[in-house]
Amino acid sequence: MCIDGIMYRWTVCPQGYRNAPSLATGAMNNTLKKFQALHSLPPQKELKIWSYVDDVAIMGRDSTVVAGVINQLVAHFQSEGWTINKKKSCLNPVDDITFLGTRYIGSIHHGISHEGPDIDPLKTFHPVTKRHFQQLLGHLNWYRHYVEPSDLALLTKLQRQIRDKSQKSTPWTEKDQQNLLHLLTTVKDTQLHAIDLSESLTVTLGFTTNHVWAVVHNTHDELVYMAHKTLQAAQHRYGTIKKILLAKQLVEPLARGHGTLHAPGATLLPLLDAERIDPHFQGEFKT
């Protein structure tokens, strides 16, 4: 299931839909569409309803409005035959909720993970097996929107450790170990601020030897979004313009909710496309 460009995998399904999660998702989506058609709701910049299978989160700027929508939605669910588990549900507005691996505290949110590498053992020994490096990469991929561009070189070093040939040419060092400990702590502490649709955003695009990245700040210079993507083999030969176009794709989810993003001298989204071949691009690799 894809939400805002991020894929999610079912691990726990509601009773009765264990073998058909798409049925649960379809039923919930139809119920919410009917609810939105029957009720006059605030615009999305003031209130938004998120759903994932049978989990629903209502987020808004006014707690009184949120409380009213919750009551209306509960009554609608009951009229449509849904059963609400009141012990597991939070039916009153709160400032601190967890939804889809993200903890929201007011207008700030950061990532959380139920399982991840324990930092304490890493202080005494280095990861040595491919499985351990893969676990670290998977954990950091979960926090991919909280990894700063300055840490992408370390991700590249981790990726090289799961291949025998590249591991020998770039061995894991004590400095890498210290940087890893710092990164594992940083991604959990990094906070992203909510996007205000009435304000402009500053988008910074860039690339390294192995990644393209995007960082977005609001008018208060607060961090609201980060993303990166590993270059494929043929993409290493792209020129500057082509790599920036790849980085542009990382912020397209923001354009769908925020409108067209502008930068000095160029409209980045959704109008920027490559009309001419980059003279620095030499084509695909040939064997």
UniProtKB/TrEMBL annotation:
Chain ranges of the Reverse transcriptase domain: 1-104
Domain of life: Eukaryota
EC number of the protein: 3.1.26.4
Enzyme class, first EC level, given as a word: hydrolase
PROSITE patterns, alphabetized: RT_POL
Xref: PANTHER family: PEPTIDASE A2 DOMAIN-CONTAINING PROTEIN-RELATED (PTHR33064:SF29), POL PROTEIN (PTHR33064)
Name of the protein in its database record: ribonuclease H
Gene: LOC112550595
